[in-house]
Write a structure and sequence with these properties.
Layout: H1 4-39, H2 44-47, E1 66-67, E2 74-75, H3 83-90
Antiparallel strand pairs: 1-2
Subcellular location: Cytoplasm, Nucleoid
Keywords: Cytoplasm, DNA-binding
GO cellular component, one term: nucleoid
Amino acid sequence: MTSYKELSAKIAALMQQAEAQRKAEIAGVVQQIRAQMLEYNLTVDDLGMGSGRKSAAKGSTVAPKYRHPVSGATWSGRGKMPKWLAAEVAAGKDKGVFIIA
């Protein structure tokens, strides 16, 4: 009966062997692809295989909707209400007073 250690050693050796074989085969395939690309005058762009990742879309900036008359601080109306506007509303002022015309 084969022990666990012996089996683990065999697995490790086979994994190394498989990786070496994979690298050798990849080198041959890459060489074939390059030869065909030269033969047909193709570029990487012609293959239509970008990186596979799409760049994250940048968030668009939103024009400010509210402005504090004293400090000039602005708020787009999106997200949590800023402290300056919350304080003014709590003091009894209408939020509409701060809308940028």
